């Protein structure tokens, strides 16, 4: 395990996109009608792939995508313990040789590889780096790829994940937004875990400039808003109890 830790068509299945700072790799975005977004990333030379945040309805389309391109699933990455949908990670694990990857604080017993801030895994020569970004959840990590960052609920386009659910923390969320993300390059493409605004990609520079959650005057104002004001504006979470029960096992 120590060695492993060291080392779009939206609507499921378009032509792969090539990109990235000295690396050519396959990158595909998947979605379900509720707006959940998942991803497949692969090194075509090594024929190794990883999936990130597979919602249960994405399992078969993702497997079809991999099979059609002759790719072997190496890693099944859940960025955190999802509260609003059932993860497809365990189902993918049953149907492949892929290993489930989550942060060391994740409660799930299905995890094969537990990562911490700064850890890397590799698909051939393609690096996958993990950044610890708590706030929405205590076990949330972002996935950094050449030219891209998959931000899950830590950073949404024009917003961020709520902090009033199990293991949420508004103070940690503020530090994630104002210290972790603001320290990263503006040109990084942002791919979130949900699409609530009709957009599924942004840049860090755009979010730093225009995202209201990244532009509060102080930590105190942000925490007050997230703890007291924001919950009143949000709808009840879809299948909260069922999703947490399934994803924590």
UniProtKB/TrEMBL annotation:
This is MBL fold metallo-hydrolase. Keywords: Hydrolase, Metal-binding. The lineage of its organism: Bacteria, Bacillati, Actinomycetota, Rubrobacteria, Rubrobacterales. Pfam families: Lactamase_B. GO terms for biological process: glutathione metabolic process; hydrogen sulfide metabolic process. It comes from Rubrobacter taiwanensis. Transmembrane segments: none annotated. GO terms for molecular function: hydrolase activity; metal ion binding; sulfur dioxygenase activity. Residues 35-194 form the Metallo-beta-lactamase domain.
């Amino acid at each position: 395990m120590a060695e492993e830790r060291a080392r779009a068509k939206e609507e499921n299945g378009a032509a792969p996109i090539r990109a990235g700072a000295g690396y050519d790799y396959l990158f595909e975005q998947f979605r379900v009608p509720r707006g959940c977004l998942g991803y497949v990333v692969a090194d075509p030379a090594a024929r190794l792939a990883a999936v990130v945040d597979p919602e249960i309805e994405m399992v078969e389309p993702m497997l079809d995508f991999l099979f059609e391109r002759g790719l072997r699933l190496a890693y099944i990455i859940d960025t955190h313990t999802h509260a609003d949908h059932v993860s497809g990670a365990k189902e993918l694990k049953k149907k492949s040789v892929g290993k489930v990857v989550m942060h060391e604080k994740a409660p799930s017993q299905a995890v094969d590889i537990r990562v911490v801030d700064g850890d890397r895994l590799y698909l051939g020569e393609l690096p996958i780096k993990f950044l610890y970004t708590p706030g929405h959840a205590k076990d949330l990590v972002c996935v950094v790829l050449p030219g891209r960052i998959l931000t899950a609920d830590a950073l949404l386009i024009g917003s961020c994940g709520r902090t009033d659910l199990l293991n949420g923390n508004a103070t940690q969320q503020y530090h994630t937004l104002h210290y972790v993300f603001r320290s990263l390059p503006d040109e990084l493409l942002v791919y979130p875990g949900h699409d609530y605004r009709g957009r599924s990609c942004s840049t860090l520079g755009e979010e730093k400039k225009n995202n209201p959650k990244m532009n509060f005057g102080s930590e105190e104002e942000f925490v007050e808003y997230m703890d007291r004001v924001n919950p009143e504006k949000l709808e009840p979470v879809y299948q909260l109890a069922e999703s947490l029960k399934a994803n924590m096992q």
